[in-house]
């Protein structure tokens, strides 16, 4: 509403200038004068996605911020796992630490093995998502040697090293290790394809698949699931999608509910004709 129209309305209705609330007038929507103006306004709104704000929408209100009482303390592991275990090797050289959520009755147990620089808590979210979709499933996440709360017998030697008298600057000739790079992974794809049982490979992209894995995937030797939006740790970046893939893979390969026909030898032993 223009200033001229506002002044005319005040004079027509006998309203004093100071009685008019300018704040409420800011949110008032002009009424269309005729059908042509209404059609023009509707087309403008639909084409640009413009929404006229009202007093109760609070479109430009400030965010509330962090709720009071919320701290930056880490979430306890008991939020995702039932208990922790310590398993010591026979030679007492290492004591492995693990997080466990026990399976219910005859439910499956998902054993999680993390990568370098991580820990068993890396599977906290995906384990929680798995149990949402399969409440009878169990989750076992182990802290590998040198990671998490797993301890080794020679850690005291490392802690007891005296301080150096002068600082050292360590330099490693990485080029000298190049002949050993390929040897670390030679034959790994072939061993993966030759392993018995069902196999599922989760990747963030297929650009690094070698020839053996590409041919094996075309031949149906394993299942391949690609998550283009994920990073190196797929189970941390996309825990829900990872849990769905793992649960579906288990259900497709679950043979506990299969009813197999009796063997011929058993029928003959029972005196039945075959």
TrEMBL record:
It is an enzyme of class 3 (hydrolase). Residues 24-36 have a biased composition (Acidic residues). The keyword Hydrolase applies. Keywords: Hydrolase, Serine esterase. Pfam families: Abhydrolase_6 (PF12697). Residues 24-49 are annotated as: Disordered. The keyword Hydrolase applies. One of its GO terms (molecular function) is protein methylesterase activity. It comes from the Eukaryota. Its EC number is 3.1.1.89. It catalyses: [phosphatase 2A protein]-C-terminal L-leucine methyl ester + H2O = [phosphatase 2A protein]-C-terminal L-leucine + methanol + H(+). Coiled coil: none annotated. Demethylates proteins that have been reversibly carboxymethylated. Demethylates the phosphatase PP2A catalytic subunit. Belongs to the AB hydrolase superfamily. PANTHER family: PROTEIN PHOSPHATASE METHYLESTERASE 1, PROTEIN PHOSPHATASE METHYLESTERASE-1 RELATED. This is Protein phosphatase methylesterase 1. It comes from Cordyceps confragosa.
């Amino acid at each position: 509403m223009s200033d001229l129209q506002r002044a005319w309305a005040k004079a027509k209705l006998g309203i004093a200038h100071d009685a008019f609330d300018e704040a409420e007038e800011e949110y008032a929507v002009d009424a269309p004068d005729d059908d042509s103006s209404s059609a023009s306004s509707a087309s403008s709104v639909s084409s640009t996605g413009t929404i006229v704000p009202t007093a109760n929408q609070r479109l430009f209100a400030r965010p509330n911020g962090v709720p009071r009482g919320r701290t930056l303390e880490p979430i306890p592991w008991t939020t995702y796992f039932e208990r922790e275990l310590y398993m010591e090797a026979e030679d007492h050289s290492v004591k492995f630490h693990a997080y466990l959520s026990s399976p219910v009755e005859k439910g499956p147990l998902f054993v999680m093995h993390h990568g370098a620089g991580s820990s068993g808590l890396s599977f906290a979210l995906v384990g929680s998502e798995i149990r949402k979709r399969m409440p009878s499933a169990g989750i076992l996440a182990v802290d590998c040697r040198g990671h998490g709360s797993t301890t080794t017998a020679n850690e005291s030697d490392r802690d007891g090293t005296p301080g150096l008298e002068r600082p050292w600057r360590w330099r490693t000739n990485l080029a000298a290790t190049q002949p050993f790079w390929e040897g670390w992974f030679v034959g790994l794809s072939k061993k993966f394809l030759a392993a018995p049982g069902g196999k599922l490979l989760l990747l963030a992209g297929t650009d690094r698949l070698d020839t053996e894995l590409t041919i094996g995937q075309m031949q149906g030797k394993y299942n391949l699931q690609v998550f283009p939006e994920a990073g190196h740790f797929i189970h941390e970046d996309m825990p829900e999608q990872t849990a769905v893939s793992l649960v579906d893979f288990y259900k497709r390969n679950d043979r506990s509910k299969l009813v197999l026909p009796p063997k011929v030898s058993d029928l003959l032993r029972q005196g039945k004709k075959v």
